[in-house]
Every structure is written in C-alpha cells, then in structure tokens.
Amino acid sequence: MTTASLAPAPIRPAKAPKVGIVSLGCPKALVDSERIVTRLRAEGYQIAPDYEGADLVLVNTCGFLDSARDESLGAIGEAIESNGKVIVTGCLGAEPDVIEKAHPKVLAITGPQQYEAVMDAVHTHLTPPHNPHMDLVPESGLRLTPRHYAYLKISEGCNNRCSFCIIPKLRGDLVSRPIHHVLTEGEQLVRAGVKELLVISQDTSAYGLDVRYKPEVWRGTEYQTRFLDLAKGLGSLGVWTRMHYVYPYPHVDNVIPLMAEGLITPYLDIPFQHASANVLKAMKRPAKQDKVLERILQWRRDVPDLAIRSTFIVGFPGETEGDFEILLDFIREAKIDRAGCFKYENVAHADSRSLPDHIPEEVKEERWHRFMEVQAKVSADRAAAQIGTVQDVIIDGPSDTPGEMIGRTKADAPEVDAVVYLDDASHLKPGDIVSASIEDADEYDLYGRPA
Ligand code: SF4
C-alpha cells in the first residue's frame, strides 16, 4: 500500500510564480514581511499586487489584541475567498488551532519569525523557479516602506513579562542581532537611498542583554552589542535615526548627549503605559519609573527640541480615579508630545485577565476622552510654539492639494505622528530634506512653506 500526501499537489505555473502578501500589525511584523518578500524575490518568485494575480497568498498576522486577532482572521477569510490558496504566518500563527477552527482551508500555518518554515510552506504549495536570479534583489533587501525611510529591527522577542502582554508568549525571549549585522544593514539601507532609519524591537534599551553586550568589530572599530554603541554606530551614518520602544532604564540618559550633538534624532518613543506606581506594579512594567519625571525634565534641558512619543493604557484593572489623575498630571508635566492611548482590553491568555477590580467599559471610555483632551492641549501647545520657527522637514509625498507636499519634522515618525503641510513645494520629492518656515498650526499638524 502506498501512502499519499494529504497536501494538495504543488502548483506549477508557466511563468514566474506569484505570491501575494498581506501584512498586518506593527512595524516589527512589517519587517518580518520584508524579510519574507526579500527571500521570495531572491528565489525568483514575483510579488503579486492583488489576490487575483497571485498563485498563492501569504497572510502575516497580528495577534496582540483581540481586535487585531479578529482583523487577522478576517484577512485570512478574505484571502481564501478571493484566491483560495493561503499560507498564514506571524503572531497569530503561534495559535494554529484558532486559525484552523475559523479557516480549515488554509494550506499551512507558521509562527512569528519562522522564515524557514514559511519558505518551506511556499515551496510545498508553489514550486520554486529553477534558476533563481539572485541579482533581482538589491543589497539592501526589499522593503514595503517608501524608499526614503526604513525600519531596522535589532532584536526579536522580549525578556519582560508585562501582565497585559502576550508578546513573549508569541515571540519568545529576547534574541539580539549582532551589532555589526545591524550596522551593516543600516549602512546598506543608507547606500540604497534611505534618509531615515527607524530602530525597532520589543525593548530597544535591553538590546544586547541576552548576549552580554558582546563586542564586535564594524568598520575597524569595536562596538558592544548595546543601546549606546548602536546609537553611536547608526549616528555615524549621517541620516535621521529614530529610536522606538525605548524603556526608561538609567542608561538611556547616556544617549541624550548624542542627540545634543546631532548624531541621533531628538526623538524618543517610550511606551510608559502609565504613571501611577500602583498601576505600573500591577502591569509588571520593566524599569523603575521613580524619578522619571525629573529625568525627562533634565533631558529637555539638555536637548530643548526633544520630542517624546508614548503609549498609555487607561482603565487597567484596579486603576482608581487617583491613579488616573496621576497619569494626567504626568502627561501635563512631562509634556508628552505625542501619545497613543488605548482602553485596556482583556486579551486572551494575558495574565492581567485574572487581576481583581476590572474597570467598567463606560469608565474606561470616559477616562480615554479625558486623556485625549489633556494630550490634545499638550500637543497644541507644542505645535503653536513652532509657529515662526524654521524646521528641517523630510518630504513624504504630495497631498491632495495641487502644489502642496506633506512632510515631517524630526519630532514626528511616519505613520503615527503629526505632519507638516508645505505650500509651494511641488518641486520637492519624497526623501528630500528641506528647511521650512512654519506659519501656522492646529492641534497636531503644522503648515508652512520651504524657507
Ligand atoms: S516590554 Fe512588556 S509590553 Fe513590551 S513586548 Fe515585552 S512584555 Fe510586552
């Protein structure tokens, strides 16, 4: 008796096989998608712009919040309906039973960062071309972001165990990339025309902890695999370098002088999540927040144009009105320039589900509105203070108004922060960095023209 494979026979398209990609979730997931796209192109696959033109669709999912899981399951369903041949990867892939139950027709499921497993699944269901043209792939890899900025992922996973977060369960403990690899990738990106590097990870300030800050040599100089050396190395590349997901560990203070010198963009994305000691304890957040306010005020004295972005959760189990007031005072006093605010969600498998004193939805809603009001005022004050100044602006692209371009100052990361609308700017192109006179502002955005 012979055994037949249960998997459907691989498709053998006449031309280069085409794979469609749906990338959901955070910038870290986007970087995973870019790596997969790079591998696919290196092996001679083409990337299809839509479901219809694809021989197979890869869905890179997000499983962080319940709403993201629903979105991921919806995207898988849409891909199955429109195309039929679907491979699932990413964070939700760590829970194959959830996907199989909702969509039994998916061809294969792999978890986050399982690049080899994804490629194996693609090979199984879509035969790779015989002669891959390695030269189809630029040295800097293939990217899903516009040409002038790029995400640079420095590590995978996380050693912390914040009670509301399931990322360590999905992605495992911290694994840092060797610093010379990261710096070389940064250099290749810059050579390929990137003007702004966005450093991402789950916990950027913990970089290198898992490898005991192993020293490596890059361009003849020794760099330790740690946050400060990373900032120095990337700072030497001469482009805007933005640090995301930095926790306020004491050693972050050492990076501030690099900002003062202009080596690193004066921008810190620090996901504080809260300011009340009681709530932070229940959240099991890393890094002590004592004296955080004092340190921020000192950072601002050292680097007056420093912009701080953060995210916060309101309505965490046990959050009292007093805790919430502490949070609002913190936003006002620390002048958190850009803030995302989320109402606590009872994420499946998160430890915080079992905490006592869950907050009613209407209280979360009310606190969220109060938070946004305070934040809008802080943001509007910052925006108003920019009127009459001249700022460096990186151009992202045209707006809907003829002659007007949209760009960002150093205080704003792409996708998540504010923008600058520049009049009389049709001669500019994406990636140009120009001096602009700021003439007006609203709560978040700025308006001006090239100086
Ligand atoms: S630091 Fe906390 S919130 Fe961030 S990924 Fe790690 S466990 Fe999750």
TrEMBL record:
Residues 17-127 form the MTTase N-terminal domain. [4Fe-4S] cluster 1 binds at residues 26, 62, 91. Gene3D superfamilies: Methylthiotransferase, N-terminal domain, Nucleic acid-binding proteins, tm_1862 like domain. [4Fe-4S] cluster 2 binds at residues 158, 162, 165. Pfam families: Radical_SAM, TRAM_2, UPF0004. HAMAP family: MTTase_RimO. This is Ribosomal protein uS12 methylthiotransferase RimO. It comes from Hyphomonas atlantica. The lineage of its organism: Bacteria, Pseudomonadati, Pseudomonadota, Alphaproteobacteria, Hyphomonadales.
